[in-house]
Design a protein that fits this description.
Number of strands: 9
CATH superfamily of the largest domain: 2-enoyl-CoA Hydratase, Chain A, domain 1
Number of domains: 2
Helix content: 40-55%
Distance between the termini: 18 Å
Strand order of the largest sheet: 1-2-3-4-6-9
CATH architecture of the largest domain: Alpha-Beta Complex
Strand content: 5-15%
Number of helices: 11
Largest sheet: 6 strands, mixed
Length: 272
């Protein structure tokens, strides 16, 4: 039974999908949705049966950004109250960014304002060609503050300057050209592309995926170059003698599939 009010979680074997589930307000997020997404990622990140997490939106739009009623309430908060509120959103994005499982965000309809945070923190983002993206905060006198570290990581400083300062709308193909998403496709081709990508990830060793995701995080955020020399050598030395590493190498040399792929042979062709 779904314990959440603003999101829904579905599972297809080792793939779990977190659905933003407020279609009546275009999946705009409020404080409750933010807390529920954070909780869901914490739980799924610890679940050994989960290999991949998808973020999707119910209804006609992926996410319209912050809920207007929620923002109206925040206007009456004190600065400390607003800080606590904003920290919940900041922690939500960081929980996704640092999640041990690969994350794929799938955008349709629109991703407005803070919704682009869910795009930028994902390992892979897919979109339909006709989806509209906008970093629209400055148009209403606000700032894309808590999503800025991830947007800038995704697309670089100066492309981010243009999109954040102009707040102009771009479509899926331009979002892909700028690197905000990885692929843009016609809506009728999106599900097949998602299935192919999921199947590719599921061919990899479960432990190798988690270690690789943490490796990328640490190299980009934690290690100096000098630290990386030693720490990355220690990581590969450890994985080589692990059970998964030995099985992977044996399978490669024996020209067979590794044992961990057996559980994915019956994986559904519809990862929704």
């Amino acid at each position: 039974m779904n314990k959440y009010q603003t999101i829904e979680i579905t599972a297809d074997k080792s793939v779990s999908t977190i659905w933003l589930n407020r279609p009546e307000v275009r999946n705009a997020f409020n404080g409750l949705m933010i807390r529920e997404i954070t909780s869901a990622f914490e739980d799924l990140g610890k679940d050994s049966a989960v290999r991949i997490i998808l973020i999707r939106g119910k209804g006609k739009v992926f996410c319209a950004g912050a809920d207007l009623n929620w923002m109206r309430e925040a206007a009456s908060y004190t600065e400390p109250e607003n800080y606590r509120d904003a920290m919940e959103l900041s922690e939500c994005f960081h929980t996704i960014y640092s999640c041990p499982k690969p994350v794929i965000t799938v955008v349709h309809g629109a991703a407005t304002g803070g919704a682009n945070g869910f795009v930028a923190v994902a390992d892979i983002a897919l979109t339909t060609d006709d989806a509209v993206f906008s970093l629209s905060e400055v148009k209403i006198g606000l700032v894309p503050a808590v999503i800025s570290p991830y947007i800038i990581k995704r697309i670089g400083e100066f492309p981010a300057r243009e999109l954040m300062l102009t707040a102009r709308r771009i479509y899926g193909f331009e979002a892909a050209e700028r690197g905000l998403v990885n692929r843009h496709l016609p809506a009728e081709e999106l599900e097949e592309e998602l299935r192919i990508m999921v199947d590719q990830i599921l061919e990899a060793g479960p432990m190798a995926l988690e270690i690789t995701r943490k490796l990328i995080y640490d190299v980009c955020n934690s290690y100096t170059m000098e630290e990386a020399l030693e720490k990355t050598a220690a990581i590969i030395a450890g994985i080589r003698i692990s059970e998964e590493g030995r099985e992977g190498m044996a399978a490669f040399l024996e020209k067979r599939k590794p044992r961990w792929t057996e559980e994915n042979q019956d994986h559904s062709r519809h990862v929704t």
